[in-house]
Amino acid sequence: MSRSTITARQRRASSAERTTTVSRRTKAAAVAAATALSLGALGVWATSAGAAAAAVPVFPDNIVAFPDRDFVSVEGYEEYAGQEATLEVFRPGVGTVGAAKAIVAAGGVAFEVNHPGGSCWGAGFAPLMQVTPDLIPGDEVTVSIGGIALDTTTIQDLHASNSVLQADGVTMLVAGRIAGLDPAQMEQRVIEPALVDTAVGKRDVRAVLGGFQPGPNGAYQSKLEVDVASNTFLATYLFDDPAVAAIAAAATGERAMGWQLVDSNANRQGLTIAEFGEAGGPGVGGCPNGPLQNGPPGPTNTTAARVPGATSITVNWTPALAIPGGQPILGYRVWAVDTTSVNGEQVEIGRRIGNPAAIGTTITGLDPLREYTVVIASVSSVGETFPAVPALVVHDTVAPVITASPAGGSYAVAQSVTLTANEPGVDMWYTTDGSDPIDANTASSTATAIHYTGPISVAASGTVTYGGFDPSSNASAIATESYVITNQPTAAKTDILTAVPALQSVILTWAAADPVSPATAISGYEVKVYDSSSGSAVAVATVPFPGAGTSGTVTGLTGNQQYWFTVAAINDINPAPGPESNRVGPITALGPVVADAGPDQANVVRNTTVQLNGSASTTGATITYQWVQLATAQGVEVMAPGPNLRTIANPTAASTTFLLPSYTFGQSSGPLYFQLTVTDTSTGEIKSDRVTITPRNDVVTVASARWKQNDFRVTGTGAIEGAIITVRWTVSNVTSSATTTVVAGAWDLRLRNGAAPANPGPATVTVTSNQGGTFGPFNVVR
Description:
Blueprint: H1 3-13, H2 28-36, E1 62-66, E2 71-75, E3 84-91, E4 95-103, E5 109-113, E6 140-145, E7 148-154, E8 157-160, E9 164-165, E10 171-179, E11 186-191, E12 204-208, E13 210-214, E14 220-227, E15 232-239, H3 242-249, E16 253-262, E17 268-275, E18 300-305, E19 313-318, E20 331-338, E21 348-353, E22 360-363, E23 372-380, E24 383-384, E25 389-391, E26 393-394, E27 402-405, E28 409-411, E29 415-421, E30 427-431, E31 438-439, E32 444-445, E33 450-451, E34 456-458, E35 462-469, E36 479-485, E37 496-502, E38 505-510, E39 522-530, E40 541-546, E41 551-554, E42 562-571, E43 584-588, E44 601-604, E45 608-613, E46 623-630, E47 655-660, E48 672-680, E49 686-695, E50 700-708, E51 711-718, E52 724-731, E53 734-741, E54 746-752, E55 764-769, E56 774-779
Parallel strand pairs: 1-17, 18-26, 28-36, 44-49
Antiparallel strand pairs: 1-2, 2-5, 3-4, 3-6, 6-7, 8-10, 9-10, 10-15, 11-12, 11-16, 13-14, 14-15, 16-17, 18-19, 19-22, 20-21, 20-23, 23-24, 23-25, 27-29, 29-34, 30-33, 30-35, 31-32, 35-36, 37-38, 38-41, 39-40, 39-42, 42-43, 45-47, 46-48, 48-49, 50-51, 51-54, 52-53, 52-55, 55-56
């Protein structure tokens, strides 16, 4: 897509003329905080219970939805250039119906989804989300970066019908629908590029709420009337010239535009553009189909087990999940196919299952001397999974593993014990008298065994002994859990939340434990330190932390060595620790040499001095420091001389500075990366750390670029007041430039007479701001 095409769409999707600047929000700190916690962060998917709330975008950021094309354009977000963003579509009462990931680009349009040159819906997500959502009114479209929901646009309920030219030849009507939207926050347009060469002088005509108003260049009048009671609108156009009216009426670009709010500078935010005649579904070759264009997804984790010589096959699976926004799963079709062909025919034997939550079935009546393949298909009102999901028939020889939850221990009240197997279709048995529940030799349960069909109630102290068989008759190990139901129970299990390495130590935080009724309080915690992740490893240290506090520092560790940690709680009625938490690690304690280049800095103003703060690094007479600028965030090479290399004031100091200059042509407008290397000359130990400095970049656009004899004029907008804008153009392979200044959010470069360039022929202009923004190339109109 050419830059001129993007620019035209920007002007259509955003306000007609942006004349002033609204300060950009700075959310980088929140994103950084979320990234720091990503180790324990939840996934991005919302459920039907609700989605992450976010505000309507603030200029220059915007989310523009085109529901008729299932297309979304995300504008602005310059401070996140180069970072990965998530675009999510949440449908109230349904859940997430579509999502995509994309890298934020500089230059006005951050990224687009389901549009030429942009991302496809489903990009970066699992197969279930490989679907183009059918965008409808009420859908909430959210931009997230680093797990933080930045902004949300709600798709508005509006629609424009085809234009109709009246019998007088100069009156054109466009009717449509508007519901749940302030009529003052709506505009109707008809797009037709052929209008540029008429008296209209623009590629569109438009109507806004109120009485008749003249077009920008005359040639027509228009008005927009809204009937709130019937949720309808009518746009009326009166043209001066019947020929121009005929061109407009023949257009196929009728639009209804609605926005959630307009700010004090007339910027339209949270924009929906309904386009008459545009087809829904995927608009880009290779992008996924819509939710109603494919059969349902198949089940997963499919297994088929058969005992040699048996007349049946046991099939298990994980139930399928319907495509978001698609038809629900109604059940399954499972069939076994004889691998032997007779006269081109193969015997099929199967089952139809009307339960969408089913997890398995047994196909009987098979020939014990023949081999079979098994396939499974989900069934919905759209059809069946195609191709069906194969389940390889195996003669399983691996024993299943069965676990009990909660594990044995001391409890104040009766427990409900759940048995879980590591593979589907396991037939489980248990006893409460200590006897064996299964006989592995005969592959059967014993006389005292109880068939497990649901949670086991343990109301008094005792044991639960359990085991079972998988579909291939492999027997599990027999295990026993002992439960003590007492008035002096130990505290409940807790979990470590964070583990932060420090100098020859690790700082831990953990969740507050339940003291377990009738205990009244937690009296302390006990941390165990391991030097292995093995479950059978012996702790190398046990560290008590008296009191109910939920944090502590484990000291005396060996620097640069890995450790694992658990925590157990102690209540005030039983001095014995409760069960240990899950083991957390590896965590490497810091050694004697620490390099800390300071926190990343975002939205740094240009032409200012930037502090590189390594004060948290190791100090001492034998410690040296070295700052260098890196070419990439990964630090694969040091920055070579050139326009992007910054001069570090004192590169051998722990903390130093450099000047972030105004932007000049040829210089990168992206983040800068610096590395601090700390060396102990007495031991030779070396440590390094990196910091990212992200400049605040201007957002510049080109509104028009026109040349005529002795008159060359280029206009546009800029987000930073007083920024110097440089405009470049080429005539006869010679590039020239001139500058102007942003005033009240706009800039205007006009060269006349001798200062105007000669006829540039087919030409483009590019613009740059000394505050980092770039735009172009943009076509020059002659």
